[in-house]
Amino acid sequence: MTDITSTSAIPSAAALSWLQLDSFVPTGEVDEIITRTAAKVGHRRNIQLVLAHNPPVLIAQDALSRALNQPETSGLSPRERELIAVVVSVENRCAPCIFAHTATLRQLSGDPLWVGLLEVNYRHAPLTGRERALADYAWKITRAPQDIDSTDLATLRQAGLSEPAILEAAAIAAYFNYSNRLNSALGIRPNAEAYGEAR
Question: Which fold has domain 78-196?
Answer without folding.
Answer: AhpD-like (1.20.1290)
